Automatic annotation (TrEMBL):
Organism, as annotated: Sulfobacillus harzensis
Protein known as: IS110 family transposase
GO biological process: DNA transposition
Transmembrane regions: none
Highest taxon listed in the record's lineage: Bacteria
Entry's Gene Ontology molecular function annotations: DNA binding; transposase activity
Domain Transposase IS116/IS110/IS902 C-terminal: 9-90
Alphabetized Pfam families for the sequence: Transposase_20
Length: 128
């Protein structure tokens, strides 16, 4: 069985998958709506005075987009990856965040960057 196209690590495939899943960026009023669509926004558990201290991501929306972004973040955290993403990840880890929480924060940051690039319709100047 051939490998899943998103697992190949090919940046063009990841970008195409993300763009296909996002569709028209005008559907999203702000980057938080895009984050919610990808399903990487935190869930909220509260009742009365109780507020849960452990919140997971909602996983609603597109699982293909979530998976493509996860692979893209893992690739950007490699030594040859994005210096900006690595610095953001290291800041989260230095703040005491667990590995997966820091990775999801990186996915959230990547979605904010994607939203900014698509809404401004500008070329990305600092990718690495």
């Amino acid at each position: 069985m051939p490998p899943h196209p998103v697992d190949s690590g090919d940046g063009a495939t990841l970008a195409a998958t993300a763009m296909a899943e996002i569709g028209e960026i005008a559907r999203f009023e702000d980057p938080k709506k895009l984050v919610a669509f990808a399903g990487v926004d935190p869930s909220v558990h509260q009742s009365g005075d109780f507020t849960a201290s452990v919140n997971r991501i909602t996983k609603r929306g597109s699982h293909r987009l979530r998976h493509a972004l996860y692979i893209a973040v893992l690739c950007s955290l490699r030594p040859t990856g994005s210096k900006r993403m690595q610095a953001f990840y290291q800041a989260k880890r230095a703040a005491g965040k667990p590995y997966k929480v820091a990775v999801v924060a990186c996915i959230n940051k990547l979605l904010h960057w994607i939203y900014a690039v698509l809404t401004r319709q500008e070329a990305v100047a600092d990718v690495a």
